[in-house]
Amino acid sequence: MGAVTRGLRNVHRNHVRAISLIFILGLSVGSFLTVNQARSNIGEQVNVLESSVQTTIEIRPPATMAIVGMPPPQNKLQPESNADRIEDIPHIVKIEKYLNAKVPDGRVVGMEPGNTMRLIMGWGVTPKIIAGRTFIESDAGRNVAVAGNAFADNYGIFPGNLDGAPPIALSGTDVGAIGIFETGFSLGNNQVFLPLGVSQKIFNVEGEVSLIYVHVDSVENVAQVREDIRAVLGDDVDLLSGPQIYATAESLAGIQSSSETWTVTMIVFGALVTLFTMVLATRERTKEIGVLKAIGASNGDVAAQFIVEAMALAAIGGLLGMIFFATLGPEAAVVLLGSLKTSSLGMGYALSPSTVGYALGLVLFFGIIGSLYPVMQAVKMKPAEAIRHE
Questions:
Q1: pLDDT(71) > 60
Q2: E strands within 158-229?
């Protein structure tokens, strides 16, 4: 029997130990991939926030999420006329209005054609159109929608059947999909955009909006514009700009730092568990190793047996970890990093070439660490002494 065959057979020699190791390695690999992806996502969002914060002011109702369909006071809105009241303030170059709503299938965002597609809790993520188109000026007032791919799936709408797709039913109103987008994270993909006026009619909140975004012509004028908006609108709204958004960026940076600690922890933990398991296996098979060497097996043959076993166990654990990552990535990020912010930053919890590369790298690392001790012991063992071992 060859060394490779012996190594593969040894994988299931002790079922309890093998299953335990595979499960632990799966958790280690899956956690590593999840936290590493979250760290990458958070880094991107910090950059987006810091690059856009300087000339943008967000106007929202005070102390509320401003989402229709949420329980009070989280469903409180603001008058759409707030935008008209501030439009003549100097240095304002653009005003964007949005209505956010919650429905059983996901989230709805009402927007004016030509404005930025702003996701609910998207923190700067830009939806990528994968089929059809986004809104144009003539779509204002039409019952049309640009849906996230997961939201569209609920209605049997796919890139291949967009032209003849069934309608999307929202609170008793049918709207037709003209485009499908993808964001890379589950919360974003379960959203749909409508023209602002259409969304207001569907949810019976005409004349009201959730958020108003004000774009200022330069950083130097943001403070003055903020004061002018406060003077016009008073204390009926909250204004979110520079310091507050920087605080959000700092909070995300803190999560990113903790994710780096988790990444190192998962690597060390997986390596130690693999090493400990293989050390036990080596000690249990001392006599077997002596017999193999006594009948002519070389040090290389014996070493190969343990290398194959460790690599096989690590590979199965790595596969389990990738499945864990692909299916539970966003939820695991929330648990591991202890912040709901990470659930809205799950932009890439799906297998990609880089993710598979990370997983293969971990498998190789765990396999090397796990087989290092057995290989060293096998080389040093003398057949006669090993056979006498009890």
A1: yes
A2: 168-170, 173-182, 191-195, 208-209, 211-216
